[in-house]
Amino acid sequence: MRIDILNIMSKFISIFFIFAISISLLSPLPAAAETTDEGILRIKIQILQLQIEILKAQIALLSKGIQIARAVPATTPVSGKKNCAQLEISWGSVQRATGYKLYRNGTALYEGKARSFVDSGLVLGEKYRYVVYGLYNGEQGEPSEVQEITAPDVCPPKIPSLNFKAKPCGGQITITWTPDIKVTVYELFRGNRKIYSGPLTRFIDSGLKPHQTYEYKIRAGNQGGWSDFSTPASFQASGLCAPSIPEVSYVIPEASQEGILSAELRSSPVNNIRVRSESTNQSVMAFNVKAWYSDITITKVDLFFDSRPWIYLDKIKIQYAGRTIAEEELDQESFSRLETEDIYQLRFGNLKAVVKDGSSGIFTVRVDAKEFQLAGSPYYITVFLKNNSIRGVDGAGIWQYAPKSGGGKEGSFVRTFRIE
Question: What is the CATH number of domain 162-236?
């Protein structure tokens, strides 16, 4: 309850005034009044005692009222809701727009060319209103429809911590990270490339270059959104494994003889095939290899490109008879640039694809496109074989090569595909 301090003080002054009058009544009487009746004096004394008790009660009440007034808070307590919610806002493209501007509850949040924005620091469970404008050389166009979105009622998870362990050999790294029961999915990146997405807390990164150092980062997600990325951490892949007994023997039997290796380009896939963003295992070239007079084991295939495939592609694979026999995760170090031409060579070595005497086998080149492509697509990439791009060993232990003619960018073993 509130106590009116001024009212209490006025009462205090009134009581004090009565107290003063009462004291004056008790002052020594003149000699002429000494004959006053003793009963009247006793009544005065009782009145004085009563006034003193009233004064004590008023002083106690005054003291209590001051304490209560000081205990009342001056402002309303701040809400205990957490400002940790997160919303990812995205919108469609607008024709001829040079950029976009996003507002939340009338306040500008983002301006730029991207068509998505992560809004963080929101109150759990609160509703927010978003609207986006197309920009035309800095001028705002018509607004989108207002979207009212409720923020999640849980916070995004904490940032995981990465741990590394090199496998004994073979260019592999075992990566683990701290588990969290609040996490539903983890995303692990090598450099800027996502290599794992899922609920597990362990991943073996294989197919790496021995002794090369790689950089990793990770983030965790749940229904409340994504954590920040962990601080990038580097680790070195394991070295080469000691050579093992080869599956293919090059010991020359007494009855063995030299073979002949030939190749021809298949009509399917056709030229100018489309490879879309995020597509995987898409065929861009196929060639038929045939062995004569001896079984021939194909051990090497060289592919050549007229541009920088690592900018647009994540992986290139070689399949033989429908089975993947080699796979390369692409970066700039995967290729060798020919000094005399603006051509980039990708070598698949250590193959063990056996083509039987008198029969043939189909080799297919397949690609995985990057998730996001650069502006200006479609982009055309040409892949081709040079003479002697295919190498094999026959039953006599002699190296055989194909194609013997028709190789090169302007030759017969060429396919162009476009990235969209």
Answer: 2.60.40.10
Rounded to whole angstroms, how far apart are CA atoms 72 and 68?
7
User: CA angle, 358 as apex, 356 and 364 as ends, to 5°?
Assistant: 60
CATH of domain 85-150: 2.60.40.10
pTM beyond 0.85, yes or no: no
Note the pLDDT tens digit of each residue in 244-298.
545 544 444 444 568 899 999 999 999 999 988 778 889 999 999 999 888 999 9
Please state the domain extents for the chain. Answer: 5-71, 85-150, 162-236, 260-419
Predicted confidence (pLDDT) per residue in 3-38, tens digit: 444 454 455 555 555 555 555 544 454 444 444 566
Burial of residue 313 (number of CB atoms within 10 Å: 0-12, 13-18, 19+): buried
Among candidates 44, 47, 46, which has minimal Cα distance to 27? 44
Task: Please answer whether residues 195 and 315 qualify as being in contact, where contact means their C-beta atoms are separated by less than 8 angstroms.
Answer: no
Lookup result for tokens 């996003």? 102
